[in-house]
Design brief:
Blueprint: H1 21-28, E1 32-36, E2 39-42, H2 44-63, E3 67-68, E4 74-76, H3 77-83, H4 85-89, E5 94-95, E6 101-103, H5 108-118, E7 127-136, E8 151-161, H6 164-184, E9 190-193, E10 203-210, E11 216-221, E12 227-229, E13 250-253, H7 260-267, E14 275-282, E15 285-292, H8 299-306, E16 310-312, H9 315-322, E17 338-342, E18 351-354, E19 360-365, H10 367-370, E20 375-377, E21 395-410, H11 412-417, E22 420-422, E23 428-430, E24 432-439, H12 440-450, E25 452-453, E26 456-457, E27 468-473, H13 478-493, E28 498-501, H14 508-518, E29 522-527, H15 528-532, E30 535-540, E31 546-550, H16 554-561
Parallel strand pairs: 3-7, 15-17, 17-20, 27-28, 27-29
Antiparallel strand pairs: 1-2, 4-6, 5-6, 7-8, 8-24, 9-10, 10-21, 11-12, 11-21, 13-19, 14-15, 14-16, 18-19, 21-24, 22-23, 25-26, 29-30, 30-31
Helix pairs in contact: 1-12, 2-6, 2-12
Length: 563
């Protein structure tokens, strides 16, 4: 491709609205242009990269037996109402005002509908269906360029199985395919256990890169032996100790004491003796959760335990329900609430918690004796420096960007939409489903996040828009122009992807800056000085290493570099 006729509108200055490196460089390199908040035009250079990523994805999906579909982006809203996800997605779901239709952010409903109409027997299973298609999510605050947009391209795939063992096999096939995809795209990634969220299901994993641009928070073992999204991460921490004392509960006046730190200081006790009460709605049901000291409740873990959406109880409603304000709530004698406790408190006594009366707390609480605890669960958010659950290392808390997510859905969608089959005994059973997503644009952006320097992008050969950036220095010289033209023709004939900077009246310095910004793996430079000695120069973009090569052996050397 000749740069003189190729639409690559590079920009010298960093755009004001671009905060992260990938957004800045994708705009500066002429890959994308923002049309509206969270909506981007992909220009020819960016589109070439995306198509290469899609090809890698297709090859790995086909390798595990995937069949490519193309589902409609417009979905009847009734499908989403049947699965309860109109409410689950809330305002993030785009609705059409003049039709009962939604713009699909994912396609579990459509897949289950197809299965309902076309899967009849266990002999029709298993199936792996995938597509690469535009998705829509009404993000309230689009940001970070293409990492968080309202319209984006996604590879979503679905497994349909007759048995749970089949689901496990399909899940494992996707996990390996994802590792292959991200490795081939030159990404340094890790895999974490994650929450299923609105997708539902029994298990899920995220494939992520570590990045300050990320919106996910991840707990990583320093030795690399453990990784989990903070929503589900666990750690090894001390349990509350049981005291041999068994005193009866006693009320104590604690004026103006509202926080754990204030209470610990007022009573001169360690925070591990304090049982903090956190109050939530689980659906429409009030729940009190006891946490040790300053431990933070993890809402995702609570939602998983309760099997319902959770949200804090409003202060005015709390006062109506308990007769007290936040900071004075406790589990003893509390009526109308389900009561749960974090596992750190299991078996604990000699605890202090609110008395359900403003400015009062109860001492000497024995959870087994004095409270109706429904169950003990891991409900806390892990902290930096705690020991990883396998006991081998300390945890660090980092930001990460999600590249892909895999889910064991089970029968949530087939039950809701009636996707059933007859097993070998003629018994009707629900189809068992899995769901697997990859953000195509995220792969591109994350590759740039991990592969750039102060001059621009550094593409890996697998997804670079072009392999070679051919540059003429001294375009007024007929010998330089003719040599470059001949090299260009020979490389194209050999199937090498070449971006030829054949622009005239452009200074060499400007050409070199553009070449480093665009970031092709190798730059081939044809200049008067070297050509006089029968040589051309090859520069490797990643290392900056430069090599002079005899002109007659240049094609062979370039082919070697591209292997």
């Amino acid at each position: 491709m000749r740069l003189s006729s190729y639409f690559v509108p590079t920009v010298k200055e960093t755009p004001n609205d671009a905060v992260i490196a990938s957004h800045q460089l994708m705009v500066r390199a002429g890959m994308i242009r923002g049309l509206s908040s969270g909506i981007y035009c992909w220009l020819p250079l960016g589109q070439r990269v995306m198509l290469k990523v899609m090809q890698v994805v297709r090859e790995e999906m086909d390798r595990i037996g995937g069949q490519e579909f193309y589902y409609p982006a417009l979905n009847p809203v009734e499908l989403w109402e049947e699965t309860g996800r109109v409410k689950a997605f809330g305002d993030n779901l785009f609705h059409l005002k003049n039709r009962p239709l939604v713009l699909a952010p994912t396609h579990e409903e459509v897949v289950a509908w197809l299965a309902k109409n076309h899967i009849a027997s266990y002999k029709d299973l298993p199936q792996i269906w995938y597509q690469i298609q535009t998705k829509f999510r009404n993000e309230p605050r689009p940001r970070s360029g293409v990492l968080r947009g309202r319209q984006f391209i996604m590879k979503d795939s679905y497994t349909l199985d007759a048995t749970w063992e089949g689901l496990d096999r399909g899940y494992d096939l996707h996990a390996q395919a994802y590792r292959n995809i991200f490795s081939r795209c030159g990404l340094n990634f890790f895999v974490v256990g994650a929450s299923s969220g609105a997708m539902g299901g029994s298990a899920s994993q995220e494939f992520m890169i570590e990045s300050d641009a990320g919106e996910d928070v991840v707990a990583l073992a320093e030795d690399g032996s453990y990784a989990a999204n903070l929503e589900v991460a666990t750690s090894l921490v001390d349990q509350a100790k049981r005291s041999p004392n068994a005193e009866a509960c006693a009320e104590i006046h604690t004026p103006n004491v509202k926080t754990i730190d204030q209470l610990a200081a007022f009573l001169s006790v360690d925070e591990s003796r304090l049982a903090k009460s956190v109050v939530y709605w689980a659906g429409e049901e009030p729940v009190l959760v006891l946490m040790m000291g300053n431990d933070e409740l993890n809402e995702s873990k609570l939602m998983s335990v309760m099997g319902a959406e959770v949200r804090p109880i409003e202060p005015e409603r709390l006062l109506q329900l308990t007769g007290a304000d936040t900071g004075s709530i406790g589990p003893v004698g509390l009526r109308g609430f389900r009561i749960l406790a974090d596992k750190r408190l299991e078996g604990a006594n000699e605890l202090i918690s609110g008395a359900n009366k403003n400015d009062y707390h109860l001492m000497h609480i024995d959870l087994a004796r004095d409270c109706a605890i429904e169950g003990y669960h891991d409900l806390r958010t892990v902290r930096e420096g705690e020991t990883s659950p396998n006991g081998t290392s300390r945890l660090k808390i980092v930001k990460g960007v999600e590249l892909g997510h895999i889910f064991k859905l089970g029968t949530k969608y087939s039950d809701a939409l009636g996707a059933r089959f007859l097993d070998e005994n003629g018994k009707e059973l629900p189809v068992i489903m899995g769901s697997y997503g990859i953000g195509i644009e995220r792969i591109v952006a994350c590759h740039i996040e991990q592969n750039h320097d102060g001059d621009g992008i550094i593409w890996d050969k697998a997804i670079a828009p072009f392999q070679i950036h051919l540059i003429t220095v001294g375009s007024r010289s007929k010998e330089v122009v003719d040599t470059a033209e001949r090299l260009y023709s020979l490389l194209v004939e050999d199937g090498v992807e070449v971006l030829f900077d054949d622009r005239k009246d452009i200074s060499p310095g400007f050409k070199f800056k553009d070449a480093d910004l665009l970031g092709m793996p190798f730059q081939v430079i044809v200049g008067e000085k070297n050509l006089a000695a029968g040589k051309i120069e090859i520069k490797e973009r990643r290392t900056g290493d430069r090599t002079l090569v005899e002109l007659e052996s240049a094609i062979g050397k370039i082919q070697q570099l591209l292997v």
